[in-house]
Hints:
Elements: H1 10-14, E1 43-44, E2 51-52, E3 59-63, E4 66-71, E5 74-78, E6 86-88, H2 95-98, H3 123-127, H4 129-134, H5 167-177, H6 185-197, H7 209-213, H8 217-348, H9 351-361
Antiparallel strand pairs: 1-2, 2-3, 3-4, 4-5, 5-6
Amino acid sequence: MRGRHLVLTLPLLLGLALPAPAAAAVDVSVQIGVNVPAYPELQPVPDYPVYYAPGLPANYFFYDGLYWVYVNDNWYSSSWYNGPWYLAEPAIVPVYVLRVPVRYYRVPPPYFRSWAPAEPPRWGAHWGPQWEAQHRGWNQWDRQHVPAPAPLPVYQRQYIGDRYPQREQQQQIRQQQYRFQPRDEKVRERLAAEARQQPAPQRPAAPAARAIESTPPAQQQREARERDAQPAQQQRAARERDAQQQQQQHARVQEERERHQQQQEARQQQQQAQERQGREREQAHARQQQQQEQVRHQQEQAQARQAQQQQREQQAQGQQQRQQQQMQERQQRPEREQQQEQGERRAQRPPHQSGRDRNNND
Length: 362
């Protein structure tokens, strides 16, 4: 394709150190090995004013009117989806591009693998303490007041293949088709510098005088009116198409936000349900322990009552045995007393009387 590959300068090929360029400066376009044959499908990064291209095998983003690509440890920017690409020094890359989490890099470098997917890359560790000192707090911002994403330049969808414009045509087409003004100062500087890199389009040569003279005046006027009306009609149709595409894109962005909000609400409801289930399990466990404690207490009381009953029964049996023994003793006492009285009487009688008594008894 034309106008989409850049040539590296000799110092870059030799790996020599270059002085840091000014914030608004851009290098000549370079070949970065990323070829996008048609306008890519871009999706918003949730809660960020940045889009990414999930279907491309590249770290490809769109922010505030410019495309951004991270390849070979360098950032590149362009106002058209397939370049030409211009090298962007780390100091001039917008912070919202740098804040995009690691998971949205489709071809992350190997050193990204040890970093948290939900967090942005650790640019301070990668670019060194000097960059980190100049960008303190770059990853801290008010997440409740994130700017709205810029409308996508969907007018570029019609420019594919041989219709992709040359560098000198891109600036003019963009000014006619894309009315969005970037909010980020660094993006505005990049666009201004890119415009200076592109030469002004050449005007078509005027028709030969003889050809004009050979055309009747009425026909000349009609053709002139048609020529004047065609650009206006084309511009009006392009504006209507662009407005319709922007509305569709806005609807998709709104739908994505609503879907993201629904997912958050679903996660919150799921979390609340899990917490409620946890509380119910704890309450059920507490009730079960309480029931077990009551059953154990009832068993202990039953065992105590049974022990008391057994003790009373044993006491009653002992008392009954004592009463029986006392009755037996009372029954045996008269016989012993009678025998004792008879023995006492025999002991008081004279001996001879006792013999007669024995004889009588005999």
